[in-house]
Amino acid sequence: QVHLVESGGGLVQSGGSLRLSCAASGDIIRFNIMGWYRQAPGKERELVATIAARDDTNYGDAVNGRFTISRNAARNTVYLQMNNLKVEDTAVYYCNWRSLQPLAPGDYWGQGTQVTVSA
């Protein structure tokens, strides 16, 4: 089992910045990928950003160039720096941890943190 604790959500004006954090604990497999997904009301959950071994990153088209994902591997923590926030970024943001070890599969989600961007 892997437990994820998210923090850093809140209310911000358009053009502002927020930083999300997600700390993983439990049965951490070193070969893993962590990331952020978001879900707005009435919409499907979508990719925000992921980061894997060797800091390989991937971003959703809607946030590319504005958001930056990073990780502290020693602390099993991933961060999402969100700049130039837009109203359409309003959503619940979920942290995800997934094992890339075929012999030790696992896919876990955090409880979500609300990000609200006002006009």
Question: Explain this structure to me?
Answer:
By secondary structure, this protein is an all-beta fold. It is 0% helix and 55% strand. The strands form 2 sheets. Strands 2, 4, 5, 6, 9, 10 and 11 form a 7-stranded mixed β-sheet that branches. The protein has a 4-stranded antiparallel β-sheet with strand order 1-3-8-7, with no helix packed on it. It is elongated. The relative contact order is 0.32.
Write the topology of this structure.
Blueprint (H helix, E strand, L loop, with lengths): L1 E6 L2 E4 L4 E9 L5 E8 L6 E6 L5 E3 L7 E6 L4 E6 L8 E9 L7 E3 L3 E6 L1
Parallel strand pairs: 2-11
Antiparallel strand pairs: 1-3, 3-8, 4-5, 4-9, 5-6, 7-8, 9-10, 9-11
Order of helices and strands: EEEEEEEEEEE
User: Uncertain regions: pLDDT < 50 for 5+ in a row?
Assistant: none
Using only C-alpha atoms, the radius of gyration works out to 14 Å
Distance between the termini: 40 Å
Question: What is the makeup of the main sheet?
Answer: 7 strands, mixed
Share of residues in helices: under 10%
Separate helix tally: 0
Mean pLDDT over all positions = 94
Could you name the key traits of this structure?
119 residues, mainly beta, 7-stranded mixed sheet, 4-stranded antiparallel sheet, 55% strand
Structure summary:
The chain has strands spanning 2-7, 10-13, 18-26, 32-39, 46-51, 57-59, 67-72, 77-82, 91-99, 107-109, 113-118.
